[in-house]
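Supplementary Methods, section 5.1.

A reviewer requested that the exact input to the structure prediction be made available. We therefore reproduce it here, unchanged from the version used in the analyses.
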Amino acid sequence: MKKRVIAALLAAVMVMSVFAGCGKKDDTQSTSSGNSGATDNGESTEAGDDGLKTLRILGVDHSGTDGDGRTVKLSEWINGDSKLWEKFTSDLAERGLKLEVDLIEDDQYETTINNQLAAGLDYDFVYIRPLTTKTRLNMVQQGQFQALNEIWNQYGKPETKEFFENGPGSEVVRLNVLEDGNIYWVSTAIIGTYDDAYFGSFTIPSIRKDWLDKLNLEVPKTTDELYQALKAFRDQDVNGNGEADEIANLAYNEFSGGIAQYWGLGNDLVYVDYYTGKVSSPWYDENIKDYITFMNKLYSEGLLADQSNDIASTYVAENRVGLLFDWALETWDEPAVVVPEGEAAPYYMGLLCEAVEGVDPLIARQRGIQKAGYDYAATKQADPEAVAIYLDYIATEEYSTLSEFGIEGYSFEYDSEGNLVQYSDSELSEVQMIVKQPALWVNNGIAPRVQKVDRKQEVAMTKESGYSMGYPEEGFEDKVKLIRDIYENEDKYHYAAMVIDMAVATVEEIDEVNEFSTDLETRSEEILTNLIMGSYSMDDWDTYISDLKGLGLDKMIEIYQNRYDRAWAD
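The structure derived from this sequence is encoded token-by-token as follows.
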């Protein structure tokens, strides 16, 4: 998400650990901040001659593109005169830590790290995203990873412990907990806030408002009204191309297309109830048959795009799509639409429709704090005090500001109202880059980040985008009206969890699910698609459910429930 002007927020930051890799290979680029701090046999010393502890890190030579189109790598920052890297390392030195960094090209990292596992690890702190969960669990069982919670409990500052155990970090950490109750890797996180309350982004079906206006139609409030609007779009040739080709472009081989949630259905084959924490499946919901009947009506009357068509992605650009499913704050669908000269500019607006009396439509939303897949672990030979220093720093507001926005007076400033304003017109390459993205050492580099997203600012930017997309008077005000109300009046609406946030699976759980998940998911999609297309009869419903049960549906629910409970039971 590109930021230009954002409210200055207290940042919370997720942290990493140390992974041990084998000795340096020919395909690594070794860089250093300070003296070696390591003995000839690769073991970390207590401290170097300069009194600083050393943390040896293996990571990706992450790259980015600045505003002038130049690609720059992390190694160039480290070996050049980057003020951002200088600030990063000097802050660590003040805390008693220096870094030794080996960087590997992004496209070579997975092969390299797996090869090094076989040779024996000889790093302290390692980026482990390419490693499978089973590989990580085996490393834990072999004693190759240190428990990070023990490190921050014994050696970390009180505020670091508070961040991980009770603060924003705790919601991500619980998703990394193993059966023994310990945390062996920590992840980058995204924290969304609206007026200081945590709130994740969400998806919603969106209808062409400009088409409704052209036909003098009200915004649908029920699924019957939605059907009538879609039918009117087609029958009255609202796109003006002389063909009856106006459609809804919705995935119907799964439950995550938005419309199923109007019937209160979960948005995946196996889902967790947002309110009760109970794991179930839409196949067991009492309203599923009515949902399928509605979708079959759309399909039978030619109002639903054929998802088997390879050109389905071009329907929006062809000005044919009256209803789609996307992120609520999207502003990328409208520019893709080519409308006839003289027609109103395209305008997609989210809507919620009642399908069953007494059943509120669900909004698929993320948690306010989301765990991203950039993981880091500390190896057995790492000095836990050195790891603790790294964690202490990464958990500070100072680091968050540096990694997200840079240095005050160099890449940003605060205006008179306290808002952080980035220098988007700077001629300096690294300043141009940090306006577009965070510092090169985060994510799949050598350190995690917490991206703190101001949802209120997102809403404002979405509205403003309409000023340049054909609506200069009010922008996309109607688009954001519902979104703003959802953020500000959360209790008025009902929600579906976008994903099941679960604890790390055990080896046994991984093996068991792998045995049947592909066949189960394939059969589920096959049944749902054919019922909606009319190729399967509803008369054989019991047979379909029996098929899904036989393929492991109930077992998948049981395993996911156990994993969910391990993360959220408290």
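The first strand starts at residue 5 and ends at 7. These observations are discussed further in the main text.
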